[in-house]
Amino acid sequence: MSDTAGAGEADVHSVAAEALDAVRRSDDLDQLDEVRVRYLGRNGRLNGFLRSIGKLGDAEARRQMGQTVQALAERVREALEERRAELQAGDSDDEPLDLTRPAPRLRRGRAHPVTIAITEIGRIFAELGYAAISGPEVEYDRYNFTLVNQPPGHPARDSHDTFYIDDQRLLRTHTSPVQIRSMVQRGAPQRVIVPGKVFRRDYDATHLPMFHQVEGLCIDQGIAVSDLKGTLEYFARSFFGPDARARWRPHHFPFTEPSLEMELACVVCGGSGCTVCGRTGWLELLGCGMVHPDVLRNGGIDPDRYTGFAFGMGPERAAMLAYGIPDIRLLYENDVRFLRPMP
Ligand code: PHE
Q: What is the pTM of this model?
C-alpha cells in the first residue's frame, strides 16, 4: 500500500480514530462487517502500516511502529466486538430478559490525560519550590488585560476573541491575570504556578473554546533569562524524558520583555519532520519572558529591586505531545477507548 509508505505514528493514530468513529456509526451488522474488512482485513488500512514497516530505518523504530499498530488494531477489534454485541442485543428486543446472565465486567476508572499532565507539571514545579495557587475564571477586564499591559484599544484585545460577560467582566483568556493577584497578595520574592481553565472563541483540530494553562511566576532579586531557560529546560527533561531537546525563539507578549517561545524537538519523529509537527521537526510548547517592569509595578513590586520571569504552558498540548494524540478534540470527546489506554 503505497499511501502508507513512510507513515508515522500520528498517521496510525488518525486511521485508528477514523476506524473507531466508523464502528460507532455502524447501524447494522453488514455495515459493521464492512468496517472490519476495511480496517482490520488482510488488505485493510491498519495492515497497510505493518507492510510499510520494512521501509522504516532502524530496528527500534520498526519495533515501536509494530507495537503501536498491534495495540491500536486490538482496540479497534474490541470496539467492533462491543458494537456487534450492542447491535445483536438491539435485534432481539423481544427475547425475555435473562436474569442469570453474568453482569458485564466493571472497569476501574483513571485520571483524564489532561489531569495527569497538570498533576505531573505541579509535581515537578513543587520540587523546585513553587506553590500551586488558583484564580477566578470569571475575571475583571482590568486584570485580564489592563494590568498586564493591554489597555483598552490595545490590538491584543481583539486577537484574543474574548467571551465577555458585561462591560467589566469576562471569562479569562489566559492565566496571566493571576500574576497580578499573586504579586499583590504575596509580594516578593515568590515562586508560584497557576493551573486553571481559560476560554477563547476558537474551535478546530488544535483549538478549543475551553482549555487549560499552567502559568508560572518567579520573582526575586537578580532573576535573569538564564534562570528562565534553565528552569524550563529542566522541566522539559523531567516531563518528556532526558532526551527532550528545546530551542528558543524570540516572540512578543505585552507583559514580558524580552519574550520567548520554547519549542521542543518533535516527540513523535525526533526532529526529522512528520505530520504532528507539520514537517518542521519542532513543536511549540510555551510562551514566556522576563516580567515587564510595568507589570511588576502594577502588582506593587519595585522593578528596581526585583526582577522575575513568567511562562504560560498548555497541559493539553503537553499531554498530546507526551502521548502522541493527533487531535485535541479527542481529549474532550470522552471516548473511554481512547482515554483508557493512556499510561
Ligand atoms: N499568557 C500568554 C498566552 O496566553 C502566555 C504567557 C504567559 C506568555 C506568561 C508569557 C508569560 O499566550
A: 0.71
Ligand 1, atom 4, lies closest to the CA of 174
CA of 139 to the centre of ligand 1 (A): 16
Ligand 1 binding pocket includes 176 (Cβ within 6 Å): yes
**Residue 85 shares a structural domain with residue 117:** no
Q: Is 97 inside a domain boundary? A: no
Quickly state the pLDDT bin for 343 (edges 50, 70, 90).
Answer: low
Distance 86 CA to ligand 1 centre (A): 47
| Domain-embedded: residue 50 | yes
Q: Is the peptide bond before 189 cis (omega within 30 degrees of 0)?
A: yes
